[in-house]
Design goal:
Organism: Mycena metata
Strand content: 25-35%
InterPro entries: START-like_dom_sf (IPR023393)
Helix content: 10-25%
CATH architecture: 2-Layer Sandwich
Order of helices and strands: HEHEEEEEEHH
CATH class: Alpha Beta
Shape: globular
Distance between the termini: 59 Å
Strand order of the largest sheet: 1-7-6-5-4-3-2
Number of helices: 4
CATH superfamily: START domain
Number of strands: 7
Protein name: Polyketide cyclase/dehydrase
Bound molecules: 2-acetamido-2-deoxy-beta-D-glucopyranose
Largest sheet: 7 strands, antiparallel
Keywords: Signal
Structural class: alpha+beta
Amino acid sequence: MSLFKLPAALWAVICCLPALAYGAPTDWASLHCPSNSADGLPTPTYGSDQIVFTVCAELNISAPLNDVYNAILNFQAYPSWNTFVFAVDLPPNVTTTPADDYVGMPMTFHTAGVLPLSNSTSNEILTVLDPANPSGYSLSAWRYDDGLGGFGMRAEHPNVLVDVGDGVTHYLSFETYYIGPETALVLLLKGNLQTEFEKQAADLKAYVEGS
Ligand SMILES: *[C@@H]1O[C@H](CO)[C@@H](O)[C@H](O)[C@H]1NC(C)=O
Ligand SMILES: *[C@@H]1O[C@H](CO)[C@@H](O)[C@H](O)[C@H]1NC(C)=O
Ligand SMILES: *[C@@H]1O[C@H](CO)[C@@H](O)[C@H](O)[C@H]1NC(C)=O
C-alpha cells in the first residue's frame, strides 16, 4: 500500500463506516433546530457522526405541504424570491423544475452573503426526493460536492416538511457540516451561513404565502 493510499483508506474507515454502523433511523418529523449549533442534526447521506456544526432555520408556512415542497425544488424560480441562493445552474436536459429534478442531479448554487465582499458558488448534488413519506413528513436534500469525493468537505442540506394542520406546513431547513480539511475554513463563515439560512426561510415563507 502506497503512502497515499494508507491515509485514504484510513479516512474512508473514519468517515464512512460510522454512518453505516450506527445508521439508526432518523425520526425526521420530530427534528427541530438545535439550540447550540455544535449539537448538529443528522443528514440522510452522512448520518450523525463527526458533525462539526449545523446551521438551521424553522418556521411555519401558511400553505399546503405540496406547495412548499414544490417551491423548494423549483430551482428555476429561485431568482424571484431567494436572496441567499439567488440563482441555480442546472443540467441542460433539465428544462422544467421541479418536474425534471432527479436524484443525482448536479447543480451550481450562486449564493450571496456568505463571503464578506463577493458572491460565491457551490456545487451541489440532489440526494433525496421524498414528497410524501408514510411516516408523516416530506424530505428533500442536496449535498455539497467538493469534487474530491468528500475528502475536502462533507455537508448536506435537508428540508423537512410536516403538515401541522389548519393548512399550515412546518418547514425545517438545515445544513450539517462534517469533519474535513475544508470545514475548518467554513467554520469561520458559520455566522453568515446561519443568517442566510434564516433569510432564506423568511424569503420562502413570503414567496409561498404570497403566491
Ligand atoms: C408551528 O405550528 C405548530 C402547530 O400549531 C406549533 O405547535 C409550533 O410551535 C409552530 N412552530 C413554529 C416554529 O412557529
Ligand atoms: C437528464 O439526464 C440525467 C442523467 O443522464 C437523467 O438521469 C435524467 O433522467 C434526465 N432528465 C430528463 C428530464 O431528461
Ligand atoms: C451578487 O450577485 C447579484 C446578482 O447577480 C448582484 O446584484 C450583486 O451585485 C452581487 N454582489 C456582489 C458582492 O458581487
